[in-house]
Amino acid sequence: MEEDKLMPMTSIASGVSQELAPDVSYLCTQIVNLCFYGSPAEASEYVIIDTGMPKSFEKIMEEAKSRFGDGSRPKAVILTHGHFDHVGAVEETVAAYGVPVYAHELELPYLTGQQSYPPASPEVGGMVAQLSPAFPRDPIQLGENVRPLPADGSVPDMPGWRWIHTPGHSPGHVSLFRDADKLLIAGDAFVTVKQESLYKVVTQKQEISGPPKYFTPDWDAARTSVEKLAALKPAAAITGHGFPMSGEELTESLARLVRDFDTIAVPEQGRYVNE
Which end of the chain has less Cβ packing within 10 Å, N or C? Predict the structure, then answer.
């Protein structure tokens, strides 16, 4: 019997937030994580990295108010990529605050109404994957509010951080890394929950996995991106889905993912397996 069908949705991590560093915290909105960058002790402005699921705007602003205080406001949004579960509140954030949005130049067609993402691949297995053809993949329209990330690898309004091109899950997917403390914001380059399985999403059973299989069209690029991130030897990582991972557990899990990528990450069948 499919174990996805057995678990009621009572253990999901929606609403969970945690500080990862004095100036970095994350919030889970339904099934996806977003991050805040900024020191509450030093400023009332902050950067949002990804904007969660649709209809998350009010929850995000509540969390920001709780962390940064009344009158606080975002000064920029950084997108790891433009899938619907990472841009859910970006249009409302732009409308409310007029902030700039930064993404890799290869992601801009999906953020300016020009191009839809490739179709989902439900054949990869798991109940979430079976539902994936119903997930939105049409582009959003941010117009002149969205800008390409700087070519020098710096991240606007996040001094000491650099962006790393980690395609595979999407053409312009990026991850963010701070060398000083080796903190990694990985987006969906890899995740710490088996995102295809509803049972594991609900229970948030932590395990290293590649990018969500149903929305990943380029597995060769995805493998190279994981190798690139593992080589950084991050001390801690927050991924787009699942709880943060750190220390020896992260090091060993990433090494295993690199070594066994074809077994752990690549589905046995699916629309993009042989492409």
Answer: N
Single pTM value for the model? 0.93
Are 76 and 101 within 8 A, CB to CB? yes
User: CB neighbours of 73 closer than 8 A, spacing ≥ 6?
Assistant: 44, 45, 46, 97
* pLDDT value of position 192: 95
> What single-letter amino acid sits at 182?
K
What are the structural domain ranges in the chain?
3-264
Angle between helix 57-68 and 90-97 (nearest 10): 60
Q: What is the DSSP string of 125-153?
A: -SHHHHHGGGS--SPPB-GGGEEEPPTTS
**Cα atoms in the 13 Å half-sphere on the side-chain side of 113:** 6
Q: What is the per-residue pLDDT across 112-155, written as a single tens digit (0 to 9) for each? A: 999 999 999 999 999 989 999 999 999 999 999 999 999 999 99
| Residue 273, both tokens | 């397996």
Query: Which of the listed CATH numbers 3.40.640.10, 3.40.190.80, 3.40.30.10, 3.60.15.10 matches domain 3-264?
Result: 3.60.15.10
SS3 per residue for 197-262: CHHHHHHCCCCCECCCHHHCCCHHHHHHHHHHHHHCCCCEEEECCCCCEEHHHHHHHHHHHHHCHH
Task: Output the six-digit token pair for 78.
Answer: 């950084």
User: Tell me, what DSSP letter sits at residue 272?
Assistant: T
Q: Which residue has the tokens 């009621």?
A: 8
Residues 77/90, Cβ–Cβ less than 8 Å = yes
